[in-house]
Design brief:
homotetramer, about 290 residues, alpha/beta, Alpha-Beta Plaits, Rossmann fold, 2 domains, 7-stranded mixed β-sheet, 4-stranded antiparallel β-sheet, about 35% helix, hydrolase (chains A, B, C, D), ACT-like_dom_sf (chains A, B, C, D), purine biosynthesis (chains A, B, C, D), Formyl_transf_N_sf (chains A, B, C, D), Formyl_transf_N (chains A, B, C, D)
């Protein structure tokens, strides 16, 4: 497979008004920019306008720094609440993965990376247990075991400080909580805001918190699901990126539900991570636009 | 389409132990009973055994009354907690439908009945608004308008008494709350226990109560759903019969979500009602076995 | 529900090149046009560019005729292969439905229209059998029975001529083959090109032609589906608008498959028809872009 | 997770008649057999009866050999066409996997095995290319590279002979073609009949043969799928075990379709393999019953 051509990804949001599309499109057209993909959305509830554009890097006569500089002037025309970002697909994405003992999401991500389907660098895997060190190292990826002593608040604080340090060393585009079983402290939620993704094994907002499959089994639901969301200080209440479900029935034991749900967790997390890394997810309030 | 052959439907539940299947199967075989469909389940959590059998009526040398009498003796062998029922598909099922203003579930059910897909008698439709009287009568079905005066507790009590009376006159196998917007009082929940089916327009237990699509939109979920459940005194918390979901995205307005969700409500309700009328739904505690 | 605000729908396609979005967006912005929804796509295989824009009618200082006139000049800039259309949602959409004996799709469409979910005029229903006349007339819609004599080629030709005439009298935006069991002659395919929609009861290209559910049952598939497509002279081979599937298993008889599949046919047809009437379906070659 | 308790799996098929369930259930009950799971099906088209029973090994006073011996007498009562099998979950299942270059299905299976979700021995992986040797060996599993010289019929024959020999050495319960790109010769189809499972990357019978995703893209379908089926001498026409689909749209390139479809291939193959190894799949003619 040939490497994908280099692109600049522009995401932009501001209060809606007439002429935004024309302004951005004209700016790009005047510079010779070849738009490969473009999406627009206006939220009628909030009156907020969103767009995402993919431009071929080689169609512009200048580089990403100048593009950002020029775009700063455009963005300023639309008010001080405007939020925008331009990223360069030529810069390789870095990901740090946090795990516990459950293997399925990590295996799945490593498989996608190894086969080239997910074109990122996994900078490190950090586990609060040691079990997943072997497979991580077999993929040539550093594994850090940071134990979280049960019932020891001070020890946990120290462990989180260590995790924070390890993550900071890689400055990743995404911190993936791939069935990491520890609740992040507020200061880490803040530090990783907008780039920490969690996979929760329920169709949120059903079954927040611990052991959602057991909750689902007890309630007798006919579908179980998984939710990929940005981590915020409110447990399992951050902006939802992706969800999916799978059918279960009375014949399914807890173990069956865990297994079936696991298949959904993997794909929901992989989709959410891909979209995040491709700058497809725009957050506004507690909701997402996924282009 | 030829009418389906007449069958006896046997449902049976008791604490699990060795030999139940053999006992029931031998009893039927000894009488020459031709089992057309059979399903078994044991719930490992509760140790409860469930079975449902369809027997060709013409394969037995006696009628349903004698079958029930003989089966009483069998059932007694398995203890006093045994619960069982034998119904005769030769007895036509009767249904009463409760509606408000939303038309889609009623239209869907009437269409299924008119086309012969759902082989039941709709004895009556009762509406707390008059809007759906026209289509009901166009199908040759009696429509009763029972107004529920807003904010008038006494008036509501009287209205429910009237509904109760109307329903009782038909002694239906199912009372279908097809987007009926009134919360049933506990005594009606008790009187209709096990035969009142509600369609709730969310994937329960998410979004209990009023305006679930608005709740879903606000939370930014990526799927909306519907749940068909037995009505109990706990609002939207009865045993779940069937659920399904449909994908929504940031581009969907509340109206879009209502429309998309409506398509799911219709099929979930129709499936749940069919299974209920075919004695496929066995309730144990707050969960269902759907054979 | 308040009536939706009036909008102009612009669909446009031409060979891709730099600056198309800017040109169209600037044209609209210069006229004060408020774009409510916008979608773009470029097909890398054919190099074809597609867009669809919804503009609030009251945001433009001129009417639809002048909009078309002005847009003609814009479109001309992009070459002679450009294809475009501007429609006015203020003009009510007209639909003619062709049926045979199967009732479920017709019931579903009539229910959607009656409840206001599908905001169109059903100008007429034409049946090659008389069975569905009753329900049609109960909705206040004219029903025409045009018998198709089996095995009589001349009689069929005359019947198709009659259908053609009836349809022409209404000049509908869509001719819906809602399980109409007659194969259209090539001249009707040509006359109704781009506005005749069929619902085929299989997941095409599987099971083209007659009795697809029987074919599916014989092959032992684990899902059955339905396909809404534009009618062309090649049987069941026209551009696909929408498809969906539902799970079946070994326990499902042909009758069960017909029933389960029917639920999919209804929603697939309703979605396809809605998208067609909202000018969301752009055809290029034998494929569709659905915005 | 505690190891699952040891069970005997009984699968049985014969022409339907009264009393089969009673005979088998009584036989088991008389021996004290505790039936943990039981399923029955009669195919009305062929008049064939199917059952599968799971019995706790420790509930019987004799071992699997004597169970088979005693059951032989029971089975004989139902005629010479009866087919049955009793397997012991205490005997660990062995699997050989055939691969080419595509990694996703192999990664997925190895991950499931490594995490204990799929409790089998992968005896060997055989590749007609060498690429997947590394990951295989990292899991401690032997990898055999058997090159298939393109356009050299004699060389291919020799390669297949080598594969046959390698497989035979392990006498596996399943030979899994996990995107193996070579068409098996008829004699291998015969030798592996009933235990060679293929994953085909389309919703069969659509898009038989080479490059199904390219075929799907060209046809403009709105869903792509995958099919797990038993391999027979008719290419992609063997009995279907499991299928599933995923939505695609006009924005998806071939690469996107390959990626989305890959997620479906993995789960469909994993489900089919699990069901096969648990003796849940009963083949009759070209169709399967999946209990």
């Amino acid at each position: 497979m040939a490497p994908p051509e280099r692109r600049y990804l522009i995401t932009f949001g501001c209060p809606d008004r007439t002429g935004i599309v024309a302004r951005i499109a004209s700016f790009l057209a005047d510079a010779g920019g070849w738009i490969v993909e473009a999406a627009y959305h206006t939220d009628p509830d909030t009156g907020w306008f969103f767009t995402r554009q993919e431009v071929r890097a080689d169609s512009l006569p200048f580089g990403v720094e100048e593009l950002r500089e020029r775009f700063t002037a455009i963005a300023a025309e639309f008010g001080e609440n405007t939020s925008w970002r331009i990223t360069d697909t030529g810069e390789r994405r870095r990901v740090v993965i946090l795990v516990s003992k459950a293997a399925h999401c990590l295996y799945d991500l490593l498989g996608r990376v190894a086969s080239g389907e997910l074109d990122v660098d996994v900078s490190a895997v950090i586990g609060n247990h040691a079990e997943l060190g072997g497979i991580t190292r077999a993929h040539g990826i550093p594994f850090h075991h940071v134990p979280f002593p049960a019932g020891d608040a001070e020890g946990k604080r120290a462990a989180f400080a260590r995790v924070r340090e390890l993550v900071a060393a890689h400055d990743p585009h995404a911190v993936v909580l791939a069935r990491f079983m520890q609740v992040l402290p507020p200061e880490l939620c803040a530090e990783w805001a907008g780039r920490a993704l969690n996979i929760h094994h329920s169709f949120l907002p059903s079954f927040v918190g611990a052991r959602p499959y057991h909750q689902a089994h007890r309630r007798g639901v006919k579908l179980v699901g998984a939710t990929c969301h940005y981590v915020t200080a409110d447990l399992d209440a951050g902006p939802i990126i992706e969800q999916d479900v799978i059918r279960v029935d009375h014949g399914d034991s807890i173990q069956d539900i865990v297994r079936k749900g696991g298949d959904i967790e993997k794909v929901v997390l992989a989709r959410g991570l891909r979209w995040h890394l491709e700058d497809r997810v725009l957050v506004h309030g507690n909701r997402t636009v996924v282009f």
